UniProtKB/TrEMBL annotation:
This is Transcriptional regulator. InterPro entries: TR_Rrf2-type_CS (IPR030489), Tscrpt_reg_Rrf2 (IPR000944), WH-like_DNA-bd_sf (IPR036388), WH_DNA-bd_sf (IPR036390). It comes from the Bacteria. GO terms for cellular component: cytosol.
Length: 154
């Protein structure tokens, strides 16, 4: 999976809003808090508003807030809003991929990839990230990966 800068910024902005849940946050404050270029953030917030993940308030006390509780918005919701499907192969349905012979099992590899991504991204909410208490299976996977990195010296 390759995540665009726009999607990564969107997730960071949404987690920041989750940390400030209940408050209306000005775009400039949100941009400063996460080091996101302000004009880029305006475009991101527009996409998030169109998908009803955030709502805006106008006026002197205006800004942005989450449209639903942080616990009800997954990381996958944000990524799909910005970049579309989580994992795709040439934008073709997996059942329509032209694999045969020794490559036939690749379809199941791609299915497993999607399933593993979904188990992390759909089951991790903005509230989980903002509070630092990730779902158990996500924390376990991250810990195992950290251990592998340390063994490789990275």
């Amino acid at each position: 999976m390759r995540m665009s800068a726009k999607a990564e910024y969107a997730v960071r902005a949404m987690v920041q809003l989750a940390a400030d849940e209940g408050a209306v946050v000005k775009t400039d404050d949100l941009a400063k808090a996460q080091g996101i270029p302000p004009q880029f953030l305006v475009d991101i917030l527009s996409d998030l508003r169109t998908d009803r993940l955030v709502r805006s308030r106008r006026g002197r006390e205006g800004g942005y807030e989450l449209a639903r509780p942080a616990a009800e918005i997954s990381i996958a919701d944000v990524l799909r809003c910005i970049d579309g499907p989580l994992a795709s192969v040439r934008d073709i349905a997996l059942s329509d991929l032209p694999y045969s012979g020794p490559t036939a099992a690749l379809t199941d590899v791609w299915r497993a990839l999607r399933a593993s991504m979904r188990s992390v991204l759909e089951e991790t909410s903005l509230a989980d990230v903002a509070s630092g208490s990730l779902p158990r299976h996500v924390a376990d996977m991250a810990g195992a990966y950290r251990t592998q990195e340390q063994k490789r010296g990275h």
